Amino acid sequence: MNHFKLSTLVAVSFSLLVLWALTGFVLLNRDMMDTNDSPKSADPIRVLIRTGTESAALRQIAQPFQQATGIKVEFIEVGRDSYFTAVGTQLFAGSNTFDIVLMPSTSIAQFASAKAIIPLDRFMAGSDPAAQEKFDLDDFLSVYRYDGSIYALPTDISTHFLYYRSDLIPNPPETWEELYEVAQQFSASLHPESPTRWGLAMPAVVPEEREKIFDSILWSFGGDLIGDDGSVLFDTRESIQSGEYLEKLVRSRIVPSDLISWDFSRTREGLLNGDIAMAAPYWNSAYPMITQSSSPLKDKIRIALIPGIRDGGGQVRRVPFQHGWTLAINASSSKQVNAWKFLEFATGKQGGMIYARNGGVPARRSILSDPVFRDSRPDFALILESMKMAKSEPSLIYYPAMVQVQEDALAKILTLFASPSEAFQTAAIELRNLSAHISIRSSKRMGEIP
């Protein structure tokens, strides 16, 4: 990255912060939704949430929490399109409009480094031993630290599955090469008699969807973007091989030609309407939506571990992506103690059970393995299996810039604008320049076993 391009990136980042400052309050007020019509109790705590499955499940926790503690909870719900703008504006401006914020684990390093959210360690240490034992931190699949302290706890865990049409594909492919071969059979461009239009699809839009989906392929090939020591690995032989695999999918026309515009919903609909035979890597959260749909194909769509690479010993190396939706406490909140009480309840075992029964995927082993969900949520067992080998992204304060570099490189491959070698080598240079200009405290992965 030359000096002009780096300066431009810095200028764009500053402009984005200014845009946040000018628009965030408007977005928050415009999208604010409070479904509670009853009179407001004294000093309720307010939780900023994003429209979606996670927010709908979180709302069901409020009433049991109030009954247990006497503390009322109000939700500020913001639409998906404007959510990140609203969160960034409010936290960076020091607003106390909300006390707790729902955020992806990938945002924690940015807000923790700016002291916009607070460490939770003192609250956990302050609980009596009986309460600590009941809360059971070791039961979490992942916790999220920055600079040695826990800043957020997950309400929801996300990872990647392989989805496939069991009426067409009796046995799911185990490797990426097997996936490619099966996808060829069910692509109309290669086999006009195919019952599906494409053999494979996956979300590939921005922001962030594209690179997160690709990470499961990148890591299973043995590549990476940033190593645990902060070194850039995007131009290694293994990383480039993963890019060459992606290019092969596009050139072979077994994925949609406009894959770069496919998002979560379009991929799900492609499965449900019979356009695609497989989706991988694809989010685990789609499974209950598929099973609860009215599509005549819903019972034929099955899930399996994402494919991997078979080693010389015959073992398949799979490395699914994982991240969490977490709750963090606003550093500007004047009700941090009560905020912690809700966070503790919502991410605890009682709150987690409520969350699971309302469509969420709690990040607790004990709940995902509970026999009560064996029949109603068969995806829980696959999530637990996937999480044994899953990996998270590095915790970097320049995370958005890292994502932009990776997404640009992937766009070049998806549009056949540049070869994987050229795209990844250019991206690696940009990443090294970024890391040289921005102080890095830690490049540890964002999801850590407690």
From TrEMBL:
InterPro entries: Bact_solute-bd_prot1, SBP. This is Sugar ABC transporter substrate-binding protein.
